[in-house]
Design goal:
The chain is an alpha+beta fold. Helices cover 35% and strands 19% of the residues.
Length: 532
């Protein structure tokens, strides 16, 4: 039971269906789909499309998609709709030009946007309402306009200088004065609405062929990229066999590489050797152990994670007992580990959506353009904000995540699910780039070790590592108590207060005994959980 003196949200409880997203317009649209007879996938795709308009800094038709779907019969399937690098790109040629990393705001960073293919193919295979109906709410607000919400306005303002660099972005994503909108300002996207309508009428062909494809190719190449029509035509949505691991008797289900899902499992397996439940959930000892486990797991990520065709070790090997025991043995409960080298950890802006319908089909779906507004390059005629997922590659010769033609980059995106006694009990995700794997761990340890409901687990204060390197400071939210910070200092950690709060979680619990749904939504964002 939450303390009602604390000004926080209660969990949303429903019987038939539930949705949780990071924007209230998408939650409302998704709930309407469920109430009108659509299934959880119909609702999730509808929500994703709305968020591409209402949260353009986070996601859109120019981004990628991953999903886990739990069907009423209990099976869970994974889907990878992430795009590939241009087939003609060559790391050696880029190094010869003096590049040491992929420029984030450039055509080189733009990989094939896979999200639209994901929407269309998943709807065709598992949806019931058709892509035209799923996109109708997004088309409506793109045409008629919507009032910008507070967190979206906050994020938008951070990127104004980058958006001013490109003519398409200036035209479509800044106001007539060349500024970003304030909270409450009404924005509309007529060019993007036409693009969405083309997809609604023609499916994938409305995006990967014709006028939209021409505009994407011209824009990317005008900004130094190599994507062409053949690259767009080669987009694919691939089935993925989920990976899972046990944590305190629960089965946590994630997606395999090229996502970082197994990194969340790696952290959990390391932590299983410590009695977290005996610790104060807000105490320094708890955060110390979680951050030390995360430092080790992210070092593994930096060494191994890539397109699975190029990885030298499998997730199963890295999650094996011998690897886990060796990593766990490096952690001291009394002091921070000594430095073991830097790791480049790119940031990300993402949306996570989860929906459960009355047949208990559950969808855990994540859509993203990577950095805030992706590459910050928008197509001039069609209003497509292009992702910069190619910035997730490295240029280090011989590294498994080195950029190459037709290769998928390391992806931070990870939808999640959890089973208890063989049955699905939770569908969840945490947006926030490199934080996502650690965010899954924070959420699940709050639920499993500390007995919190999903909303309380989401509300709880967060700590992460400085994204400039694993041997640098901890980045803490302002809600962390001073006594906890003093304790972390005594354990050898340096820290600073984060500019932005960490992550954005959404979660739905299926209470099998009472046949109800309990949902939580991120208070650090503009969304909500709704049900009926």
């Amino acid at each position: 039971m939450r303390d009602f003196h604390q000004p926080r949200r209660s969990a949303m409880i429903a019987r038939r269906g539930a949705v949780a997203t990071s924007h209230y317009l998408s939650s409302a649209a998704a709930l309407e789909v469920l109430k009108s007879g659509g299934n959880a996938l119909d609702a999730a795709i509808t929500a994703a499309a709305v968020q591409g308009v209402a949260e353009p800094q986070m996601t859109g038709v120019g981004g990628d998609l991953f999903a886990l779907i739990s069907f009423p019969d209990g099976r869970i399937e994974g889907f990878n709709a992430s795009g590939r690098a241009a087939r003609n790109i060559d790391a050696g040629a880029l190094r010869a030009k003096g590049l040491t990393a992929i420029p984030e705001q450039s055509g080189l960073a733009v990989t094939v946007p896979g999200g639209v293919a994901g929407w269309c193919q998943l709807m065709e295979q598992h949806g019931t309402i058709g892509i035209d109906r799923a996109l109708a709410p997004a088309i409506d607000i793109a045409e008629s306009g919507y009032a910008v919400s507070p967190r979206v306005a906050f994020d938008w303002a951070d990127e104004v200088e980058k958006l001013r660099m490109f003519p398409g972005s200036r035209a479509h994503y800044l106001n007539s004065a060349g500024n970003t909108p304030a909270a409450g300002d009404v924005m509309n996207f007529p060019a993007l609405a036409k693009t969405l309508r083309a997809i609604a009428e023609n499916g994938e062909d409305g995006f990967y062929k014709g006028a939209v494809a021409d505009d994407i190719v011209a824009t990317v190449q005008a900004n130094g990229g190599l994507l062409d029509h053949e690259d767009l035509a080669g987009v694919s949505v691939d089935d993925m066999k989920p990976v899972s691991a046990s944590y305190r008797g629960r089965e946590v289900v994630e997606l395999p590489p090229n996502t970082q899902g197994f990194i969340a499992l790696l952290i959990l397996r390391i932590l299983e050797g410590f009695d977290l439940a005996s610790l104060d959930p807000l105490g320094p000892e708890r955060f110390h152990l979680e951050m030390e486990a995360a430092r080790l797991a992210y070092a593994v990520r930096g060494r191994h994670l890539a397109d699975p065709q190029f990885m030298e070790a499998t997730p199963e090997q890295l999650l094996g007992d011998s690897c886990i025991e060796a990593l766990r043995a490096r952690i001291s409960v009394d002091k921070r580990m000594q430095a073991f080298g830097p790791l480049d950890m790119p940031g990300s802006d993402t949306v996570f959506i989860t929906c459960v319908d009355e047949n208990r089909m559950a969808v855990s779906l994540i859509n993203s353009v990577f950095h805030s507004f992706g590459s910050c390059i928008a197509t001039e005629k069609t209003g497509v904000m292009l992702q910069n997922r190619g910035a997730g590659f490295v240029l280090t010769e011989g590294h498994p995540n080195c950029i190459a033609g037709g290769k998928r980059p390391l992806h931070t995106l990870i939808p999640g699910m959890m089973k208890t006694d063989g049955k699905l009990t939770h569908s969840f995700g945490v947006m926030g780039g490199q934080y996502q794997a650690c965010g899954h761990v924070h959420l699940l340890t709050n639920i499993i070790d500390f007995g919190m409901d999903v909303q309380s687990a989401i509300d709880f204060p967060r700590i992460f590592m400085d994204p400039l390197g694993l041997d640098a400071k901890l980045s803490v939210e302002r809600t962390i108590p001073q006594a906890t910070l003093a304790g972390l200092t005594a354990l050898g950690h340096d820290w600073y207060v984060a500019h932005d709060p960490w992550g954005g979680a959404q979660a739905i619990e299926i209470d099998r005994e009472r046949d109800i749904l309990i949902a939580g939504s991120e208070p650090r964002k503009d969304g909500c959980a709704l049900g009926y």
